Amino acid sequence: MVSQKKIDPWGSLDIKDYRKLFEDFGIESFDKYKNKLKDNRYVRRGIIFGHRDFGKIMNAIEGKKPYIMMTGLMPSGKFHLGHKMVADQIIYHQQMGACVYVCSADLEAYVMRGMDLPKAREIALTEYLLNYVALGLDLDNTTFWFQTDYVVPYYRFRDMLSRKVTLNELKGIYGKLSPGKILAVLAQSADILHPQLEQFNGPTPTVVPVGADQDPHIRLTRDLSGRFQLEYGLIPPASTYHKFMRGLQGGKMSSSIPKSAIALSDKPKEAIGKIMSAKTGGRPTVDEQKEKGGVPEECTVYDLFLYHLVEDDDGLELIYRQCKSGELICGECKAKCSDLMAKYLDQHHKKIGKAAKTLEKYLNK
Amino acid sequence: MVSQKKIDPWGSLDIKDYRKLFEDFGIESFDKYKNKLKDNRYVRRGIIFGHRDFGKIMNAIEGKKPYIMMTGLMPSGKFHLGHKMVADQIIYHQQMGACVYVCSADLEAYVMRGMDLPKAREIALTEYLLNYVALGLDLDNTTFWFQTDYVVPYYRFRDMLSRKVTLNELKGIYGKLSPGKILAVLAQSADILHPQLEQFNGPTPTVVPVGADQDPHIRLTRDLSGRFQLEYGLIPPASTYHKFMRGLQGGKMSSSIPKSAIALSDKPKEAIGKIMSAKTGGRPTVDEQKEKGGVPEECTVYDLFLYHLVEDDDGLELIYRQCKSGELICGECKAKCSDLMAKYLDQHHKKIGKAAKTLEKYLNK
Predict the structure, then answer these.
(1) Rounded to an integer, what distance in angstroms lies between the CA atom of residue A41 and that of residue B173?
(2) Do A150 and B150 touch (CB under 8 A)?
(3) Mutate to test the interface with B, among A163, A169, A228 (most CBs of B within 10 A)
(4) Which residues of B touch A (CB under 8 A)?
(5) What is the mean pLDDT of each run of 10 residues along chain B (365 residues)?
(6) Distance CA A139, CA B149 (A)
(7) What ipTM was predicted for this assembly?
(8) Helix/strand/coil for B46
(9) Which 3 state secondary structure label does DSSP give B344?
(10) pTM for the predicted model, two decimal places
């Protein structure tokens, strides 16, 4: 393995973009767990860069004690490589021994995004859950639920949360409110906390892997857990924070901008098309690039290697160095990326076939 | 039967107190249904004085078509004669052929009144439901539920309501809001409307008997039903409005002021004590009363006859006239009332014994 110092091409961006999260909001650097969790690509490469209270989870992992990994999915559009990053984390924790809880935020989709519920449900199953399974999620050891179709103790707890929070507090965190938004927020807290109720796992350390934009919600939920301390002894949930993959066009990666994201259902040909038109860190001319070298830190194709396509750090470092030195120019690099991506998608599509059967069995249980 | 003109001792109060409900809020007088529903004491005596949209319900009754009677109970304290008035209406509608839905507003008790849920549940069962059964409710033809313990389509619908209402709209109706209040309000609307979902009865005329103070909620719920017109074809719920019994001390009747209310679990002796110290419409001296006559309109003992103890209108009119003429003075009248009340409570307590068995069977089903 290559040292972090050498291979940490995001390091400098980290500090610029994420330092204020550490300083202003008390998110802690994930560095201290890098060595212990070095088998995780996202940890090793600083993509998971911060946490709150992760010590509890590390203790549980090391002590082989129970812990909960909770996450939600927003069923909106195709499952793409940005979502895969979260899926990989879910599966990683499952393999580390976590009880996995996965929620389809269809209430939020309905009230905040105006989606139909049947449509939200279909997307949750056919895009998200199916790909989770194909990526390695063990459904038999997963609690999966829809916010609009679950069990009474969950709804009861969600309702109970409403007594423990004021409207001003929610306004301070979420700005302009609506009845739907308030419900969605309470649902999200209940999603995270209810696995600790006695009807589920009971009080158990819980980790929620999120993007930094979700931190306000983590803070609220941690606060709310304390307000049920006497009643239920809830343990404030821990969190980890990951960076977002940028879209292939340079902006946001979103399933509503097809060229920004490679969906895991994309045919290799489609994916290659997107890679070919992706924004890179290349120079205006080949000559200039050969002279000055590329800027992988600004390259969305490099992101594909970094996040998904190259597990081996030496291999990644090689690409990084070759780019920096001007040895590897964008056309060649994109061809290399396309090749890896096509292979990856081919393999994944085979897994999807098998996953579909597993999912069907699970749903008919 | 005595004519309304003669026997309507509340008539003048009616007009003073309730006219603005007709004029300002569009509640309609119940007079047009008085003759058709003259077998109902509360209708006949103008205690049920107003309605919205009751025509639909009258049509259903006359056409022997399905309709729904929905009501909620607030599980707070002892079941008293004020609650009995509502119970009698539930049972009346059940006997007229209505599908009865009764909700225990334990979420509201929890979020708005700071009650414990187990306590709220116990009160709902041992005070309210038990007395409903003793008074004649047929549990086998009743859907009874707790807001915190029910079925998914109800929770889903409650959540869905949140998309169809704004915070400003709720503020306009309910004033200062809190997350708990918002949830309780949405729950109340879902309580009323969900029986019309396809998982329950499907679109069906629904009547909600309430006090006039509940009208803002009826209006909101009627509005909300319209916003689900396309999706679910909900019929705006009808409502009837009843007057409130005054407390025996003259103020509010409330189980939190024991002397204000005769609980149906009161021993006859306790009840008699309350009657003996009740505020009457009597004059300062017996002589003055014999000369000028009493004021039954201001008498809480007369209320007991009017609402509960005297079914026969001629009998009631006799008391009214004897009071007005000065023939019946308060001591004698209280003795008469005490006698009737003691008999009533004795009978009711016997029914309670039987009802307890019925309820136990129902709860263990």
Answers:
(1) 54
(2) no
(3) A163
(4) 107, 110-111, 114, 117, 147-150, 152, 155-156, 159-163, 165-167, 170, 177-180, 182-183, 186-187
(5) 35 54 85 96 95 98 98 94 97 98 97 94 97 98 97 97 96 93 96 98 97 90 94 96 92 89 97 97 94 94 96 95 95 97 98 97 93
(6) 28
(7) 0.90
(8) coil
(9) helix
(10) 0.92
